[in-house]
Automatic annotation (TrEMBL):
InterPro entries, per database record: His_9_proposed, Inositol_monoP_metal-BS, Inositol_monoP_superfamily, Inositol_monophosphatase-like
GO molecular function, one term: metal ion binding
Name of this chain's protein: Histidinol-phosphatase
Listed Gene3D superfamilies: 3.40.190.80, Fructose-1,6-Bisphosphatase, subunit A, domain 1
Similarity-based family: Belongs to the inositol monophosphatase superfamily.
GO terms, biological process: L-histidine biosynthetic process
Names of required cofactors: Mg(2+)
Keywords: Amino-acid biosynthesis, Histidine biosynthesis, Hydrolase, Magnesium, Metal-binding
Domain of life: Bacteria
Length: 263
């Protein structure tokens, strides 16, 4: 097929991303704080009817618009396609969702598998009415430009991670050593913490155990806002990355953090 940028203007692609997030949000808020039941997947993570309904609707909309594209979603796996793949996490932060905490989001990304580039990504927080959309041209937060912070020293940095539960003992020791050198550390937020970084409200996010549908949308959001994101070896994130992710406001902070993580 022709290059997708030749078929869609930047505004048309952004509009489609917003349409997807709007559809996901309508389903999410309908079920949020409704005491819905959840099941345990084989990895013991929870899943709800909302997770499945959102992914089903996103797949329907994408397949209708781009029937030749592949889709990789958390709940229903991979549908092969041509050189383009959509990455979907219908509810990132399901534990927050089922416990009434509004810090859950929907992650959507479009990647060119020919060169590994993530063309666009979105973090949508439906319960908060907050949304980040990122491309190589820049990142917006609720349609206004988003920029990372200016912190360049680890001692002045605010560092986030979702939970100690996601770390192996060895990786936790590395994170613990790093985070105790920062100005302060906070826990929780799942994808929301990356949006906060893109808007300059925190400076570092370090996590483990992420899947490609957890982090692909984050790449253009962080990079479009002027930040950097990679794995713990300093390598670019791909669908084959090991799930250890670090995002930083700038390269100076990143190098300080990597030096500790790699000890």
């Amino acid at each position: 097929m022709d290059d997708i940028q030749d078929r869609l203007s930047e505004n048309e692609l952004a509009s489609f991303f917003h349409d997807l997030a709007d559809a996901a949000g309508r389903i999410a808020v309908t079920h949020f704080r409704s005491n819905i039941d959840f099941e345990r997947k084989p990895d013991l993570s929870p899943v709800t009817i909302a997770d499945r309904a959102i992914e089903q609707e996103l797949r329907r909309l994408i397949s209708k618009r781009f029937p030749e594209h592949g889709i990789l979603g958390e709940e229903t796996g991979s549908t092969p396609g041509d050189r383009y793949t959509w990455y979907l996490d219908p509810i990132d932060g399901t534990k927050s969702f089922i416990s009434g905490m509004p810090l859950f989001g929907t992650l959507i990304a479009l990647a060119d598998e020919r060169n590994g580039a993530v063309i666009a990504g979105m973090i949508d927080m439906p319960a908060l009415a907050e949304r980040w959309y990122g491309t190589p041209s820049g990142t917006t937060f609720n349609d206004a430009p988003a920029r990372v912070s200016r912190a360049v020293n680890l001692e002045e940095a605010q560092i986030y991670t979702s939970s100690p539960d996601f770390f192996s003992p060895e990786d936790w020791a590395r994170y613990d050593a790093l985070s105790r050198k920062a100005m302060f550390r906070r826990f929780g937020g799942d994808c929301y913490q990356y949006g906060l970084l893109a808007s300059g409200h925190c400076d570092l996010v370090v996590e483990c155990s992420l899947k490609s549908f957890d982090f692909m949308a984050l790449v253009p959001v962080i990079e479009g806002a002027g930040g950097v994101i990679c794995d713990w070896e300093g390598l670019p994130l791909t669908r084959h990355s090991d799930g250890r992710v670090i995002a930083a406001a700038n390269a100076a902070l990143l190098q300080q953090a990597l030096a500790i993580l790699q000890q």
